[in-house]
UniProtKB/TrEMBL annotation:
Pfam families: HTH_IclR, IclR_C
Keywords noted in UniProt: DNA-binding, Transcription, Transcription regulation
Domain HTH iclR-type: start-end pairs: 7-69
Residue stretches making up the IclR-ED domain: 69-242
SUPFAM superfamilies associated with the record: GAF domain-like, Winged helix' DNA-binding domain
Name assigned to this protein: MarR family transcriptional regulator
One example of a Gene Ontology biological process annotation: negative regulation of DNA-templated transcription
Length: 242
């Protein structure tokens, strides 16, 4: 009986670590419990044990969790594609061709990971970008590949003035993403900022990341004129990364 309980504890602990890795830094105990269908008391107990063992750490606001020192390097090595010199040169050339911000994202099963931030245009809300998939172009692109996207977003919070928080509106957006082959968002993650996300596919044809083009939302029509060059750059980047 004791061995059975130990096996369950180990399995649940691994599931929690996977949930934190997938959903990104800042995920809360309640979100983890809901995501795993785990009793909140069990989740809290295991989270505290994992923090004590340094597998997890609490975020600065003490409300969420992130991978700890004992796992962070391993997770980064496993999950993050290497930005080769050829990929970096291609990305630099594209950045030089536009005045808009150009960011490169990698997709985890339930989170967006920044792997190359435009050095001249820092991302203003990186934590929100990685955690609230419904509010960004990159997040919508990722959600569009999930049939169970409603379970991933849950009851989405309003992040900016035009954030869509009801499922029917989000469903319309994701349908548009699948039809058009790219995602866009304006004033949804940060007021005054618009973004386009062009897909990166791995060798198996699976969505693996995004090339994002971002600028002032009042210049969205101009931003859209860069969509095809960005799509071409994404297609050339993908085999260098995945």
């Amino acid at each position: 009986m004791k061995d059975s309980r130990r096996t369950t504890t180990v399995s649940n602990s691994i599931a929690i670590l996977e949930a934190v890795a997938d959903r990104g830094a800042g995920v809360t105990a309640r979100e983890i419990a809901d995501h795993l269908g785990m009793a909140p008391a069990t989740a809290y107990r295991l989270l505290n044990s994992l923090v004590a063992e340094e597998y997890l750490v609490r975020t600065a606001d003490l409300r969420g969790f992130a991978l700890g020192a004992r796992l962070r390097g391993f997770a980064a090595a496993v999950n993050t594609p290497v930005l080769s010199s050829a990929a970096r040169a291609l990305l630099d050339d594209f950045r030089a061709s536009t005045r808009f911000a150009v960011h490169l994202m990698n997709f985890r099963p339930a989170a967006v990971q920044v792997i190359s931030e435009d050095p001249d245009h820092p991302i203003p809300a990186e934590r929100e970008l990685s955690r609230h998939l419904h509010a960004s172009a990159a997040g919508k692109l990722l959600l569009s590949s999930h049939t169970e996207w409603r379970a991933l977003v849950g009851n989405p919070p309003r992040i900016a003035p035009r954030t869509k928080i009801d499922h029917p509106a989000l469903a319309d957006d994701l349908r548009s993403v699948r039809d058009s082959g790219y995602a866009r968002a304006a004033d949804e993650l940060v007021a005054g900022i618009a973004c386009l996300a062009l897909p990166l596919y791995n060798a198996l044809g699976t969505l693996a990341g995004a090339l994002c083009l971002s600028g002032p939302s009042n210049r969205l029509p101009v931003l859209e004129t860069h969509r095809d060059p960005a799509r071409d750059c994404a297609a050339r980047l993908a085999p260098l990364l995945y």
